Amino acid sequence: MESHSETTRLIQTWLLVCISLTYCFVTGKLVPAGKMRFLLISPVVILFLLLPLRLTSIHLGGSTTFFIAWLGTFKLMLFSFNKGPLSADPSISLPRFLAVASLPIKVNPKSDFDGTPGGTSVAETDPSAHSARGYALRAALLAVVLKLYDYKDRLHPTAILFLYSLHLYIGLELILAVVGAAARAGFGLELEPQFNEPYLATSLSDFWGRRWNLVVTSILRPTVYEPVTSLLAGSMGREKAQPVAVLATFAVSAIMHELMMFYLSRLIPTGEMSAFFLLHGACVVAERAVARRMRGRWKVPRLVASFLTIWFVLSTGFWLFYPEFIRGKALVRAFEEYALVGEFLESVINGTLFRSFDGNVFIPKFFEHVQQVRLSQ
Q1: pLDDT by residue (tens digit) across 216-265?
Q2: pLDDT band at 131 (very low <50, low <70, confident <90, very high)
Q3: pLDDT in tens, 210-229
Q4: CA 276, CA 243: separation in Å to the nearest integer?
Q5: Distant-in-sequence, close-in-space partners of 204: CB < 8 Å, separation ≥ 6
Q6: If DSSP codes are grouped into helix, strand and coil, which group holds residue 202?
Q7: Which residue of 13, 80, 115, 222 has the fewest C-beta atoms within 10 A of its own C-beta?
């Protein structure tokens, strides 16, 4: 019975999401943008922050947490004031509204990001990198990474953390590629470019602004960076307000990452992940200040700049970011889910799907370990 309950909760959660977003859609048609619309939509924002507590699966629960508790809530807050992707098309249909609100979807892609959390989003992506062949190569690389975990007892701790980094990057990109394919097939929409070859970043501004987690960047800009800049520009000038806005943006990102990790692990945050993002926010501000002072008089070679940038991101990540994943046993739980899915895929490849695989057994079994994790925490 318990093994079925996680499946039931997942279905119930997304039914609640669809019903709530339908209410927001109708509210947007009847109530003008402003404080009243925000007041009417705010209960849904609160609900979306509570719904992930119903789920414990790393992949299904983690995706729901990211799509709803972070992106969904921010999109609805923007929608309350007629901003953001949900307000881009006044004639948007209900099905499209549901897709844009609940998935990392972009309707009108633009190319205008200047490389900071206050810049604009760009999809400077190499088409070949996002082709079917590109994703096939990423899937193959992920399979190699997963296989290397079998030898982690023989690997240096730093090498294991490097594997974690590859796992996180490739895993997220592949998950979002699947969501994007579904969105294109069902609604003719495009997935927000989540990554743009972050390993080629030449600065922290380039990494966080143009290359890593761009769907989050495109949401944080209108919800945090622009309001803070506008609020402070009158009293301290726009040039001095921008660094404060950058720090505020990274601070909000830190809070949301801590919240995401709490949903996944149900452990009280240690603050290490917040320290990671606050450190990077301060470094982005310092980096931009130095760049303005130098005014192009001395330029680091691109190869050296990329090496130093990735080295700094990885070293600070090993120090402050990954300990939360390890403490919450995220990888252990993820591998348990991989093993169950692997059994299914093996039955497909061997042609024994209908002879030896029983979906009525697999689905409860998939969630059985999830329930065990819930009870052990």
Answers
A1: 888 999 999 999 999 999 888 888 999 999 999 999 999 999 999 999 88
A2: low
A3: 898 888 888 999 999 999 99
A4: 17
A5: 280, 283, 284, 287, 309, 312, 313
A6: coil
A7: 222
189: left (phi over 0), alpha (psi -120 to 50) or beta: beta
Looking at the DSSP bridge assignments, the partners of residue 195 are: 212
CA–centroid distance for 101 within its chain: 14
Q: Phi and psi for 190 in degrees, rounded to 5? A: -110, 140
pLDDT at residue 339 in the model: 66
Q: How far apart are CA 361 and CA 307, in angstroms?
A: 48
Q: Are 254 and 277 in contact (CB under 8 A)?
A: yes
Beta strands in the chain (DSSP E): 105-106, 190-191
Give the three-class secondary structure for 103.
Answer: coil
pTM: 0.81
**Tokens at residue 7, please?**
């499946």
Q: Which contiguous run of DSSP H or E holds residue 366?
A: helix 359-376
C-beta separation of 81 from 171 below 8 A: no
Instruction: Name the residue with higher pLDDT: 139 or 6.
Output: 139
Within a 10 A sphere around the Cβ of 42, how many other Cβ atoms? 14
Beta bridge partners of 212: 195
Whether 76 contacts 98, CB under 8 Å: no
Percentage helix, strand, coil for the chain under 3-state DSSP, each rounded to 5: 80, 0, 20
Inter-axis angle of helices 35-50 and 73-80, to 10 degrees?
A: 170
- Looking at 8-17, 19-28, 175-184, 274-283, which range is the least confident one? 175-184
Spans of all domains in the chain:
2-102, 131-191, 195-353
Average pLDDT of every residue of the chain: 82
